[in-house]
């Protein structure tokens, strides 16, 4: 047990942030050997055989489907019929496998390739010391505690966080410090809806891969994060995009913000499962309300990602009950206001010349293009950037993109954003993304 000041000066530790950017609580993760991919695949296959006998087919919520039918038939036109049929068939949904560059994933690649998976993104240079680093890491776990992450409550629920925490000694941290492999975002996809087994969360062990809707990587690619930049993930939970950012580059700072305690705990576990000790001095977790984040921040960021809360089409369509579906539909009317405030907050936090990427996982025009239009109208410093040639055209082999947005006046809809729509052979989940540069 040490005073906070001594712990903070000790070095490579992750800070749990409550309130202002100045660290107010400290927590730590340990670098351990990762799971064996072969073992996970073996166990996952066996588990699927058992579960298959007992699982019931998912039933869509009729109230939500009726609203989607009414709105999306207008928003998407002829594309809605095919998108609808795919959203109603979860067995057709495709999933990507994002590899963790901080582990030696040779066995994972071999298994993926043997099952017909291929690289979704062009491979970039990876450190040749990756395997050596992983081997060096192996065998050290017996020296470390396996205690979980220490957290603190949001600012408004407790005036001060605990002033003590458990951390590794400086000597032990130095002994285990690993030279990070060069950034390389690697994601494998399959032409058919074949889902790779997931790896369970085990405190103190690094995972080798992360399952995700591959379309969710597009906002991260649009953000163009570079080494040494300060990056804010304003709505970070469950953490998939934060992990992708750490695969793409080595930022000087990545602030992962999530005000909801349950989702923040989920985010924390995700970071714990994928990031080694050598990266922990670069990541902080914040518990602020994203709408007013900028009011208490003295820091300006180079890049800000706003993966906003939305009427998540895949999830909402399968609401657990009609009551839940009705409640979600009531809340839906207020989402554009929330999303607009979050995007404006992000613009206040990014430096002049910096980038903000806004994204959702809904097909709703009112939560996508209309939100961007509102912010551009109210914020003269905001300048939209066209993603069509940079994102849509290069990745049209894997994704289907939506039609022009009506009612946009003289502004090209491609400058407002692009929309991924599930279509036959390209059954990824919906994803909207828009990029705005803050004028200098």
UniProtKB/TrEMBL annotation:
Gene Ontology terms: biological process: rRNA methylation
Protein name, per record: tRNA (Cytosine(34)-C(5))-methyltransferase, mitochondrial
Keywords of the record: Methyltransferase, RNA-binding, S-adenosyl-L-methionine, Transferase
InterPro entries the record matches: MeTrfase_RsmB-F_NOP2_cat (IPR049560), MeTrfase_RsmB-F_NOP2_dom (IPR001678), RCMT (IPR023267)
Record family assignment: Belongs to the class I-like SAM-binding methyltransferase superfamily. RsmB/NOP family.
Keyword DNA repair assigned: no
Molecular functions (GO terms): RNA binding; RNA methyltransferase activity
Matches recorded under Pfam families: Methyltr_RsmB-F
Protein origin, superkingdom: Eukaryota
Location of the active site: 361
Keyword Hydrolase: no
Region Disordered, residue ranges: 128-147
SAM-dependent MTase RsmB/NOP-type domain residues: 144-439
Binding site for S-adenosyl-L-methionine: 235-241, 258, 289, 307
GO cellular component, one term: mitochondrial large ribosomal subunit
């Amino acid at each position: 047990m040490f005073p906070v000041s001594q712990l903070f000066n000790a070095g490579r530790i992750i800070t749990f942030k409550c309130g202002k950017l100045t660290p107010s609580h400290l927590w730590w993760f340990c670098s351990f050997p990762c799971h064996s991919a072969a073992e996970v695949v073996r166990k996952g296959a066996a588990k699927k055989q058992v579960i298959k006998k007992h699982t019931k087919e998912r039933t869509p919520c009729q109230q939500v489907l009726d609203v989607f039918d009414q709105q999306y038939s207008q928003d998407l036109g002829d594309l809605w019929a095919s998108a609808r049929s795919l959203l109603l068939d979860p067995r057709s949904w495709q999933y990507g496998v994002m590899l963790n560059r901080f582990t030696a994933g040779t066995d994972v690649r071999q298994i993926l390739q043997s099952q017909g998976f291929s690289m979704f993104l062009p491979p970039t240079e990876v450190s040749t010391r990756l395997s050596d680093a992983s081997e060096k890491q192996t065998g050290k776990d017996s020296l470390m505690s396996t205690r979980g992450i220490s957290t603190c409550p949001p600012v408004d629920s407790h005036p001060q966080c605990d002033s003590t925490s458990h951390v590794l000694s400086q000597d032990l941290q130095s002994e285990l410090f690993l030279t990070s492999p060069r950034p390389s975002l690697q994601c494998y996809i399959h032409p058919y809806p074949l889902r790779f087994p997931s790896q369970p969360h085990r405190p103190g062990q690094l995972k080798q891969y992360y399952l995700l809707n591959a379309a969710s990587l597009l906002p991260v690619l649009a953000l163009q994060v570079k080494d040494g930049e300060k990056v804010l993930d304003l709505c970070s939970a469950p953490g998939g995009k934060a992990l992708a950012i750490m695969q793409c580059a080595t930022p000087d700072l990545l602030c992962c913000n999530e005000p909801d305690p349950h989702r923040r705990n989920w985010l924390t576990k995700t970071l714990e499962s994928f990031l080694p000790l050598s990266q922990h001095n670069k990541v902080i977790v914040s518990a602020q309300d994203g709408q007013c984040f900028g009011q208490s921040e003295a820091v300006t960021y180079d890049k800000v990602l706003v993966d906003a809360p939305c009427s998540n089409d895949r999830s909402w369509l399968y609401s657990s009950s009609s009551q839940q579906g009705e409640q979600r539909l009531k809340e839906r009317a207020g989402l554009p206001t929330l999303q607009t405030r979050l995007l404006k907050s992000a613009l206040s936090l990014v430096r002049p010349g910096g980038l903000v990427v806004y994204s959702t996982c809904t097909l709703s025009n009112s939560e996508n293009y209309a939100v961007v239009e509102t912010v551009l109208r109210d914020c003269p410093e905001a300048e939209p950037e066209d993603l069509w040639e940079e994102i849509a055209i290069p990745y049209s082999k894997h994704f289907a993109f939506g039609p022009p947005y009506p009612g946009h006046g003289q502004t090209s809809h491609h400058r407002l954003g692009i929309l991924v729509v599930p279509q036959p052979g390209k059954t990824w989940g919906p994803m909207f993304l828009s990029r705005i540069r803050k004028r200098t």
